[in-house]
Amino acid sequence: MKKVLITGAEGFVASYLFKELKNFYKVEGTVFLDKKLDYPSYKLDLTEKEEVFSFLKEKNYDYIFHLAGQSSTKVSLVDPYLTYKVNIISTLNILEALKILNRTNTKFIFISTSDVYGKPQYLPVDEKHQLRPLNPYSNSKKLCEEIIENYGNFNIRYIIIRAFNHIGFGQSENFFIPSLVSKILNAEDGDSISVGNLNLKRDFTDVRDMVFAYRLAMDLENGIYNICSEKSVLLFDIVDFILKLSNKKLILNEDSSLIRKDEPYEFYGSCALFKSLTGYKNRYTLEETLNWIYQSYVENTRSG
C-alpha cells in the first residue's frame, strides 16, 4: 500500500482528507500543535530545516500533501512576518529535502488558494488568469507556487491545487460561515448580530467534495489546477438560509471592521481543466452542506 504524509494534520481539512484516503493508502501526518489523531502522527516544526531533513531522511512517502501553514487573511494582515515565514520556509524545507534526498518517487501536492488571482478580470476565473494577490497570505501562496515550479526543474513531481472557498463542520470561526452559525446559535430572538458586506457573491465547495478532488488530483501530471463549484452565491442568501434553519428572527448589523477594502462583487472559478482530466463532479449542494454544518453545530452544542 502506498504511503501518504499530510502536513498540518491537526487542521480542519486534514481530518477530512484522512477519511478520504484511509481506505486506499497508508496515511501518516505531521503536527505542530499537540493533538491526538486517528492515525500515526509526528510533531514537527516544518520551519526548522534540520528537523525536516532528519524526518524525511528516515521516512519515505509516495505523496506529501502540504496543508500546514498560516491560512487566515486576517492574521496575515496583522502578522505578515509569521505568514511569510511559516508558508514559504515550510514549503522550501520539504522541497529541498526531497531534492537532496533524490526523492523523485515522491509527489508533492501543494494546497494553494484562489486568492492568488486577486480581483477577477473576467469570470469564471481559470488557471490562465493573471495573479494579483492582495494580501500577505495570498502573496505567500503565489511565492510558494513559483518555488515549487522551480523545483520541477530538479525532477520534483508536484501538483498545485488552487482551492476556492471550501466549508464544513470544524472550520475555524475566523471564516465567514462558521462565524455566522456560531453567532446565530448564540443569539436570542430579536437580538442583533454583526455581519460584513452581504452583497457579495462567492464560490463555495463542501470540504468533503474538496478532499475527494484532492484524491483524484494525486494521479495528475505536474501542473496547476483550480477546484471549485463553478458558481457563485449571494452571501445574504446564505445568511437567510441559516436563519430559516434556526427559526430565529435576528437583526443584521453591518460592521465595518468585518469588511475588507476593494472586495470584488463577484468571484467564482472554472475547474473545467480538472474535470476534463479526472471526471470530477460536486456531490453536495450548497443547501445540503449548510444544513450539515448547522445541524452539526446544534448537536455539538447539545453534547457539550
Note down, in words, how this protein is organized.
This protein has 304 residues and is α/β, with parallel strands linked by helices. The protein folds into two domains: 3-166 and 204-227, NAD(P)-binding Rossmann-like Domain (Rossmann fold, 3-Layer(aba) Sandwich), CATH 3.40.50.720; 173-202 and 232-268 and 284-303, UDP-galactose 4-epimerase, domain 1. 40% of the residues lie in helices and 18% in strands. It is built from ten helices and 14 strands. It has a seven-stranded parallel beta sheet with strand order 3-2-1-4-5-6-11, with helices on both faces. Strands 12-9-14 form a three-stranded mixed beta sheet. A two-stranded parallel sheet has the order 7-10. Helix 1 links the parallel strand 1 (3-7) and strand 2 (26-31). Helix 2 packs parallel to helix 4 (80-100) and helix 8 (235-246) packs across helix 10 (286-303). The relative contact order is 0.13.
Shape: globular
Rounded radius of gyration (Å): 20 Å
CATH fold-type name of the largest domain: Rossmann fold
State the helix count.
Answer: 10
Indicate the percent of residues in helices.
40-55%
Unreliable parts: none
Instruction: Quote the distance from N terminus to C terminus.
Output: 38 Å
- Give me the count of strands: 14
Helix/strand order: EHEEHEHHEHEEHEEEHEEHEEHH
Under CATH at level 1, the class of the largest domain stands as Alpha Beta
